[in-house]
Design a protein that fits this description.
Layout (H helix, E strand, L loop, with lengths): L1 H18 L2 E5 L2 H10 L4 E5 L2 E4 L2 E7 L6 E5 L5 E6 L1 E7 L1 E4 L1 E7 L4 E4 L8 E2 L2 E3 L2 E3 L11 E5 L5 E3 L2 E3 L8 E3 L12 E3 L2 E2 L13 E3 L12 E3 L2 E3 L6 E5 L5 E3 L2 E3 L4 E3 L7 E3 L2 E3 L10 E3 L5 E3 L2 E3 L10 E4 L17 E3 L2 E3 L5 E5 L22 E4 L2 E3 L8 E3 L6 E4 L2 E3 L12 E2 L5 E4 L2 E3 L68 E4 L2 H10 L5 E4 L2 E5 L3 E3 L2 E5 L4 E5 L6 E5 L4 E5 L2 E3 L5 E5 L8 E6 L2 E3 L3 E4 L6 E7 L2 E11 L11 E7 L2 E12 L12 E5 L2 E3 L11 E2 L5 E5 L2 E3 L5 E6 L3 E5 L2 E3 L3 E5 L9
Parallel strand pairs: 1-2, 2-5, 3-6, 4-7, 5-8, 6-9, 7-10, 7-11, 8-12, 9-13, 10-14, 12-15, 13-16, 14-17, 15-18, 16-19, 17-20, 18-21, 19-22, 20-23, 21-24, 22-25, 23-26, 24-27, 25-28, 26-29, 27-30, 28-31, 29-32, 30-33, 31-34, 32-35, 33-36, 34-37, 35-38, 36-39, 37-40, 40-41, 44-45, 45-48, ...
Antiparallel strand pairs: 42-43
Length: 766
C-alpha cells in the first residue's frame, strides 16, 4: 500500500509539472533560436517588445492538446518582424500570437508556412492575433504567399492581412502529400483588408488547393471573416478542392467573387455580399464543377457583370482537363436573397463557341449546366431590371421553382417562371434593407436532401416555419456586420483618421525640392509664377499634389533617360496647371526600373508636356491602379504614354485604368499610347482604356507597326469622340471585337482606319 501511495504522489508531481506553463523570455534572434530548439510541451516562449530584423523563425516542437508550445509577443502588436524574415512551423500543437510583419518581405516562397520541409508539417497548430501588412517582394513578378497551409487541423484566426501587391494568393491551402489531405483547416475571424488591384491573374485572397490536387478532399472551413476591398483579381476565394465550407463571411466592396474554380461539393452558406450599387466589379459567386450548395446568402447592391455577376453559372469544356472548366452538374442554389443586384442569375457564363476559329477545340466551353436547381430565391429591385435572368447559353438543364421577384413594375423578358410580388423591405442594420415577408403563400420547393438546410442566414431554424429567401423573419434583427472590432487582431485597426492637407507655397526650384522632401502624404505644393530649372529628378514616394494657379514652367535638364518626376512605391502624384519642358532625351514621368514593391499613381490635369523622349515611361513590374491625363497637351515628344513591358505572357499589365480625356497629342513620333497585356486567360478581365474628346495630329511617324494606339490584349477599350488628323499610320487602332473593345463618333482624316477583329489570336496563359 505504501508503495502504491509513493507511485501515486510521483504521478501527481509529474502531472503537475507537465501542466505548469513555463515562460521563457527572449530578446534576440539567437536567444529565440536557442529557446525554440529546447522547447517542450507547455513552454511559452515570449518575444520581448522590439524590432527583429532579418529573422527566419523555424518553430519545431511537440506540444499536446492540453499543453501546447506557444510563441507569443510580450505585448501583442509590439513585436515587429521586419527585413527579410519568415516563420515556419512543424510538429504538433504549436501556437503563435501577437506578431506584426511589416517593412520587409520574405526571402522564401511564403511569409508563414505550416511546414519546415516537404515532409515535416504542422498539425493542430495556429497563428492568431497577428498582422501582415504590405510585406511585399520587391518585384511584382516574384510570386509568393503570405500564409501557406500544410498538414492537418491548422488554424489562421483573428489576424489582419492587407496590402499584398505582388503575385500569388494571400493565403493558400496546399494538399500535396497524404499528410495534407482531409486537412480540416480553419480560416476564421480574420480581417482581410484591402488588397489592391494586381493587374493580371494570381491575385486571389484565398486559394484552396490547385488544379492538380482538385480531386482531393480538403474539408477546409472559411468562416466569420471580413473581406474588405479585396480587389486583387476576379477571384477573391478560389476553391480548387472538395468538401470546403465557406460560411458567414462578409464580402464588402470587393472586386471579385467566391469561385468554385475546381473541385466539388463546396458549401457556400450564409454569406453577405455588399456593394455600393455603382461599381460593376463587385461580384458574388461563380460556379463551376459538381455538387455545390449555395444557400442562405444575401447579395446587396451587387452590380458585377458576367464573371462577377451575383450568381454566375458557367459553361464547361467537354472532357475538360483538370486545369480548365468542368461542366456544372448537380448544383443547388436555394434560399438566397438579392436586393438591387443586377441580373442575379446568369447561365452559360464564359461560353465561347463563337471563338472556335481561333481557339483550340479543347478550349471551347460548350457544356451547359445539368441537373442544377435554382429554387426558393427572392429578388427585390427598387428600380426594375428587365433581365434578372440572362442566358449566355441555354439553361435547359436548370430547374427554376418557387422564385419570387418584386421588379417595381418593369416587364421581364425571360422570367423562367419567376413569381411577381409586391414586397416591402425592412431595415436589418449595417445599412441593409431586405424583404422578409410578403411571400408566405409561396410553397418552398423541397428538393432531394433539402432537409439539410436547417437554418436561415441568421441561424434561425427552418423546421417549423420555413419560407423562401435567406431570412425567415424581421424580428429583433440589428446587424453590425462592418464593426471591424469583430474581426482580425484585437490590437490593430485599419481606420485612419482623415488628415487635413497642408499647402506649401514655393517660389523657387530649391524650395520645391525642399518642400517636396519635407511634405507629408496628402500635402499640396503650390507653385508661384515663374520658370523652375531642375537638374535632378523630383522623387515622388507619397501622395502629393503639385499645382499652380499662375503661369509656371518646370524646365528639366537632367541626365538622359532620367525622369523629371520619378514615381516610386507609394508615390501618387497629381499635377495640375503646370508646363513641363524637357531637353528631348529625358522622361517627363517614369517609374523605377526595378523594386516597385508597391503601387504608384498619376493624374495630370490642365498641363503641357513637351520635348521629352517619353511623356510617360512605365517599366516592367510597375503598377498603378489609375493613370489619368485630362485637358493636357503632349507635344514634340519621341514617345507618348508607354506601358508595354509586361511581355511575360502571364496576363499582367501596368495599370488597371488608363484614361485620356480632352487631351491634345501633337508630333509624338511613336508609342503615342502603348498599353499592352501579354497572355490571355478569360477569367481575368482588365485592363481598361478610355480615350475620348482628344485630338491626335502629326503623330506616329516612327511607329514600326504603323498602329497609332496600341492596345494589344487589353480587355476594355473605348475610343470615342476624338479627332485624328494627318497621322502617318496604317491603323489608328486594332480592336478586339469579342471583348469589350469599341469605337464611336471619331473624326478621321489622313490617319488610316480603326479596325476591329472579332477574334484576335492571343497567347494562352496555361
Amino acid at each position: 500500500m505504501k508503495q502504491f501511495f509513493k507511485i501515486f504522489i510521483i504521478f501527481l508531481v509529474i502531472t503537475s509539472c507537465d501542466e505548469k506553463k513555463s515562460n521563457i523570455i527572449v530578446s534576440s534572434t539567437s536567444e529565440l533560436t536557442d529557446a525554440l530548439s529546447k522547447a517542450v510541451k507547455g513552454d511559452n516562449i515570449v518575444l520581448k517588445n522590439g524590432t527583429y530584423k532579418d529573422v527566419n523563425i523555424k518553430f519545431v516542437g511537440e506540444g499536446t492538446e492540453d499543453a501546447p508550445i506557444t510563441l507569443s509577443a510580450e505585448t501583442a502588436g509590439e513585436v515587429f518582424i521586419e527585413g527579410e524574415s519568415s516563420l515556419e512551423l512543424s510538429g504538433n500543437y504549436l501556437q503563435v500570437s501577437g506578431l506584426f510583419f511589416r517593412n520587409g518581405h520574405s526571402p522564401k516562397k511564403n511569409v508563414i508556412a505550416f511546414r519546415t520541409s516537404p515532409k515535416d508539417v504542422a498539425n493542430h497548430s495556429s497563428v492568431t492575433n497577428c498582422v501582415i501588412l504590405d510585406f511585399n517582394n520587391l518585384e511584382r513578378d516574384k510570386d509568393n504567399l503570405w500564409v501557406q497551409f500544410y498538414g492537418k487541423h491548422n488554424e489562421l484566426s483573428n489576424c489582419y492581412l492587407a496590402g499584398k501587391t505582388n503575385g500569388g494568393p494571400t493565403v493558400r491551402v496546399d494538399l500535396k502529400g497524404n499528410q495534407s489531405i482531409r486537412n480540416y483547416h480553419k480560416i476564421v475571424n480574420n480581417h482581410f483588408g484591402p488588397r489592391p488591384r494586381k493587374g493580371g491573374a494570381r491575385g486571389e485572397t484565398i486559394q484552396l488547393g490547385s488544379s492538380f490536387t482538385s480531386m482531393s478532399p480538403s474539408n477546409t472551413t472559411i468562416a466569420n471573416n471580413l473581406f474588405e476591398e479585396c480587389n486583387g483579381e476576379v477571384e477573391i476565394i478560389s476553391s480548387k478542392t472538395n468538401f470546403n465550407i465557406i460560411k458567414n463571411n462578409v464580402f464588402y466592396k470587393s472586386e471579385g467573387s467566391v469561385v468554385t474554380r475546381h473541385g466539388n461539393y463546396v458549401s457556400v452558406d450564409g454569406n453577405y455580399f455588399i456593394g455600393d450599387g455603382e461599381n460593376e466589379n463587385y461580384g458574388g459567386i461563380r460556379i463551376i464543377n459538381t455538387g455545390h450548395w449555395v444557400t442562405n446568402n444575401l447579395f446587396y447592391k451587387i452590380k458585377g457583370k458576367n464573371f462577377r455577376s451575383p450568381i454566375a453559372i458557367m459553361n464547361g469544356i467537354p472532357k475538360s482537363p483538370l486545369n480548365r472548366y468542368n461542366q456544372v452538374t448537380d448544383v443547388v442554389v436555394a434560399y438566397n436573397t438579392f436586393v438591387d443586384s443586377d441580373s442575379p442569375f446568369q447561365f452559360g457564363v464564359g461560353t465561347n463557341i463563337a471563338q472556335a476559329a481561333v481557339l483550340p477545340k479543347s478550349e471551347i466551353r460548350s457544356a451547359r449546366p445539368l441537373r442544377t436547381e435554382v429554387v426558393n430565391n427572392i429578388i427585390y429591385n427598387s428600380e426594375g431590371d428587365a433581365n434578372p435572368i440572362i442566358e449566355h447559353d441555354k439553361a435547359d438543364g436548370v430547374t427554376f421553382k418557387s422564385n419570387v421577384i418584386d421588379n417595381n413594375g418593369v416587364a421581364i423578358e425571360n422570367d423562367k417562371g419567376l413569381l411577381v410580388k409586391d414586397l416591402t423591405v425592412t431595415d436589418i442594420g449595417s445599412n441593409l434593407v431586405v424583404p422578409v415577408n410578403g411571400f408566405s403563400d409561396v410553397e418552398p420547393y423541397n428538393g432531394f436532401d433539402f432537409d439539410v438546410i436547417t437554418e436561415d442566414l441568421l441561424g434561425k431554424s427552418r423546421k417549423n416555419n420555413n419560407q423562401i429567401g435567406a431570412i425567415l423573419s424581421d424580428e429583433n434583427i440589428n446587424l453590425n456586420l462592418l464593426d471591424k472590432t469583430k474581426y482580425g487582431a484585437d490590437w490593430f485597426s485599419n481606420e485612419v483618421e482623415a488628415k487635413e492637407a497642408t499647402t506649401h507655397t514655393v517660389a523657387s526650384a530649391s524650395e520645391l525640392i525642399e518642400k517636396l522632401n519635407a511634405a507629408e502624404s496628402g500635402d499640396i505644393i503650390d507653385l508661384k509664377a515663374g520658370n523652375y530649372q531642375l537638374t535632378n529628378s523630383l522623387v515622388v514616394d507619397k501622395t502629393i499634389t503639385i499645382q499652380s494657379s499662375e503661369e509656371v514652367t518646370l524646365i528639366y535638364n537632367g541626365a538622359a533617360n532620367s525622369a523629371a518626376f520619378l514615381l516610386q512605391p507609394y508615390g501618387k502624384l497629381l499635377v495640375k496647371n503646370i508646363k513641363l519642358k524637357g531637353a528631348n532625351t529625358q522622361h517627363a514621368f517614369a517609374t523605377l526600373k526595378q523594386n516597385m514593391s508597391n503601387h504608384f499613381g498619376l493624374e495630370v490635369v490642365d498641363s503641357e508636356i513637351s520635348n521629352f523622349n517619353y511623356a510617360l515611361k512605365v517599366y516592367k513590374q510597375a503598377f498603378s491602379e489609375e493613370i489619368t491625363f485630362t485637358n493636357t497637351t503632349i507635344s514634340n515628344c519621341e514617345n507618348g504614354l508607354e506601358l508595354s513591358e509586361e511581355t511575360n505572357d502571364r496576363g499582367d499589365y501596368n495599370t488597371e485604368y488608363l484614361t485620356v480625356d480632352n487631351c491634345t497629342f501633337n508630333n509624338v513620333k511613336q508609342n503615342v499610347i502603348d498599353y499592352y497585356r501579354g497572355g490571355y486567360d478569360e477569367s481575368t478581365i482588365g485592363g481598361n482604356l478610355l480615350v475620348q474628346n482628344s485630338t491626335f495630329t502629326n503623330c506616329g511617324a516612327s511607329e514600326k507597326n504603323r498602329i497609332l494606339l496600341n492596345t494589344r490584349g487589353i480587355i476594355n477599350v473605348s475610343i470615342k469622340d476624338n479627332v485624328f488628323q494627318n497621322n502617318k499610320v496604317k491603323l489608328i487602332a486594332l480592336l478586339w471585337g469579342a471583348k469589350n473593345n469599341s469605337h464611336s463618333n471619331n473624326t478621321i482624316s489622313n490617319s488610316g482606319i480603326i479596325k476591329t477583329e472579332e477574334n484576335l489570336k492571343q497567347t494562352l496563359m496555361y
